Amino acid sequence: MTKELPKVRLLTCGGTIVSSGESASQMTGYRLKDFSVDALLAAVPGLSAVARLDVKEVARIDSMSMTSAVWKDLGRAIEEADADPEITGIVITHGTDTMEETAWFTHLTMKTQKPVVFTGAMRPSTALSADGPLNLYNAVRIAVDPEARGRGVLVALNDVIIGARAAMKVNPTNAAAFAGLAEGPLGLVSGDAIVWFGRPEKPFGAAAPFKLETYAHPKRLPRVDILYSHADDDGMLVRASVEAGAEAIVHAGTGNGSIHAETEKALQEAAQRGVFIIRASRVPGGCVTPGLAEWQERGYIPSGTLSPQKARILAMLALVTFGWNPEKMKEAFERY
């Protein structure tokens, strides 16, 4: 008697993987049209021999327009899949523009040990050598691999498996669009084999205090703005952010999270008004360290290896979970 195939819940959020162009040579400027998930599945030979797929649409949007409301909907869908003992793993198709943000939010808030694998595409479904079908095939293979359990949320494209904390889109058009930068990949898809290198070092999921139900009631998560430093920076955007109601500001500074002299006064004023200041860097990679003594005296928090967009999400979750608590905010960036 043939053993029944594992069951995988496929949660779809839209993105390039289900987008269409006007010709096989169109690689940019495509749109979400009428290409369906069923058509995508039909374009993946052999998928039915890997797993039984149970499909649920969470959203159908370009990920450049992602919202925290969709993150919450996705989180509930993951919880539902986790509660089903038949389901072995969860695959999420998502646009690549903000995949790293959705994956990071999910990594911090989900509590499942089941594999959760994000995938997508850099070329539309109509393109010559579209990458979506193979990415989906590999994501399902990863989701049913027992070795994938307990590794948190994974981002898998172009044969590379990256942890959600490290994953970053580093190329706007190339199929090799994602990298792990400071932390590197957790594994690779190599032909018929899935090769694992490691597990996340930082606590996540059940080991973290961030719970999805905590964020189900507010209309939105707290306002946290990212401000990108540059020559001629003058602090105007810092003041505008504070007036708009920001509870924290992620300052994507130059170099090691450095701050323009003309912006420093505005950030100091914001901190005195109770706005958390997170020092990140516009440099893609490396680790932001504490830096100048006066930055520590003013309560500025270095982002470590988190990108500005990842630092923003952690700050939002910490604000909802702990409220205005400088020690807990600092601890969150040191621990997670």
TrEMBL record:
Substrate binds at S63, T96, D97. Keywords: Hydrolase. The active site is at T16, T96. Transmembrane segments: none annotated. Belongs to the asparaginase 1 family. GO terms for molecular function: asparaginase activity. Residues 7-199 form the L-asparaginase N-terminal domain. It holds the Pfam family Asparaginase. It comes from the Bacteria. GO terms for biological process: asparagine metabolic process. Coiled coil: none annotated. The keyword Transcription regulation does not apply. Residues 223-333 form the Asparaginase/glutaminase C-terminal domain. PROSITE patterns: ASN_GLN_ASE_2, ASN_GLN_ASE_3. This is Asparaginase. It comes from Sutterella seckii. SMART domains: Asparaginase (SM00870). The lineage of its organism: Bacteria, Pseudomonadati, Pseudomonadota, Betaproteobacteria, Burkholderiales. The keyword Metal-binding does not apply.
